[in-house]
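Researcher: Go.
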Amino acid sequence: MTRLAEAMQPLRVFIDGHNLLFRLGALYGPEGREPLKQDLEALLMRWPSASARLWFDAEESQEIEVHDRFQVSYAGGKGRDKADKAILQTLWDERLESRPPTFVVSDDRGVWRRALGLRGIRVSCYEFRCVLRMEGPGTEAEHH
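Model: Structure:
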């Protein structure tokens, strides 16, 4: 399979937004949610076979469909780590379904360990930062 064909395979990215912003704070600053969403939208434009779901902890649940391949979820409820639990619950709910590979972006080792058991592929926040800065298949950088 060629590099371009591999890059065009469907994939999903589940992101623990607070964890990513905490780890990459210098990159995004205190008001990092909007710049992060913009970076994710740009990434999805470069990678048309990818979809992303960005989770944040919140007091109340809310789902926002930015477009057909990008969703922002606010995991509501009581307690801590609501986004972590929502990511893992989604993987659990889909564990028997045929689905594209799902990359889980978080530096929480407990999330990584449990996601791996649910066919998630771990990606550190630093690794994902590198992906955000990459060119997508078919762009100018691909031809140099």
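Model: The first strand starts at residue 11 and ends at 16.
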